[in-house]
Amino acid sequence: MESNLNSLETRFGRLTDIVIDSIPGIIGGIVLLVIGKYVIALVNRLLHKRFEKRNVDPSIRTFISSIIKIVMWVMLLLTVASQIGIQTTSFIAALSAFGLAVGMALQGSLSNFAGGVLILMFRPFEVGDYISSANGTSGTVERIDILYSTLIGDDGVRIFSPNGPLANSVIKNYTKIVQRMFEYTVSISYDKNVKDAKDIILRVLRSNETVLTAPEPTVFVKELGNNSIILTVRAWTKREHYWAARNSMQEKIMLELERNEISVAPNPTQISIVPNANDQGSPVKVDV
């Protein structure tokens, strides 16, 4: 019994000595962590001021700042671990193995990182540009980060698009162009004069200040449908006037045609009648 008590006292004494010996290192580690956190924030602020002074592109600012911040935090944590008494050599080896495992598990994220680098290198778009991608995503670019780009959609919704698929898809950048074309179709009845309809539409387009005269607006017969003549209307406007011109012109054209007693015919609805499996023959299509 006495030997067990002596053994327990010895172990407790060793533990106490370890704790006492570790206190300076722990305190030093905490001090380093606090100072390091302040230094990282200070470097980040100085970096942003430097970027603003040199007028660096906002997308590059965000990307570089994120990478530098991550590197500084890793260095700080390794320094704190060394100060506390943790063997950083084995820690780095374990961290490398962990990083390899995480890298294999997060191949998609690595692809997004590479996509972010490609976007910043070739710059198909920048912060403030209005873009649309092949997957249907569209909006104004708000941020370009390491893994994701943030867009603001037409309805104000914030969209987070992975950089990997975004860099590898077809991207339409509408901000890089000076003017845009808007197009829609107008259907008129066969008993109406096509030339009169075209003249009315062109007159409406030319009377609007937002519609450009070069290239000239055009109206042509696109198709002779079963129930109506389908006209295609094309006109050009400045990029910043696109949505307003496109939406207002469609309504004005319809009202002007109706005022001249040229009714806009509804587009035919096609219904396919598919035979049963036991029946022979092809589907029958009927325009309504």
From TrEMBL:
Query: Per UniProt, which keywords does this protein have?
Result: Cell membrane, Membrane, Transmembrane, Transmembrane helix
List, alphabetically, the SUPFAM superfamilies matched: Mechanosensitive channel protein MscS (YggB), C-terminal domain, Mechanosensitive channel protein MscS (YggB), transmembrane region, Sm-like ribonucleoproteins
Molecular function (GO) terms for this protein are: mechanosensitive monoatomic ion channel activity
Name all Mechanosensitive ion channel MscS C-terminal domain ranges: 183-263
Q: Topology with regard to the membrane?
A: Multi-pass membrane protein
Q: Which GO terms describe its cellular component?
A: plasma membrane
Keyword Cell membrane carried by entry: yes
Record-annotated Mechanosensitive ion channel transmembrane helices 2/3 domain positions: 67-107
Domain Mechanosensitive ion channel MscS, first and last residues per copy: 109-176
Q: Where are the transmembrane segments?
A: 23-43, 63-86, 92-122
* Designated name of the protein: Mechanosensitive ion channel protein MscS
Q: Which InterPro entries match?
A: LSM_dom_sf (IPR010920), MS_channel_1st (IPR049142), MS_channel_C (IPR049278), MSC_TM_helix (IPR008910), MscS_archaea/bacteria_type (IPR045275), MscS_beta-dom_sf (IPR023408), MscS_channel_2nd (IPR006685), MscS_channel_C_sf (IPR011066)
Species = Sphingobacterium athyrii
Q: Where in the cell is it found?
A: Cell membrane
Q: Belongs to which family?
A: Belongs to the MscS (TC 1.A.23) family.
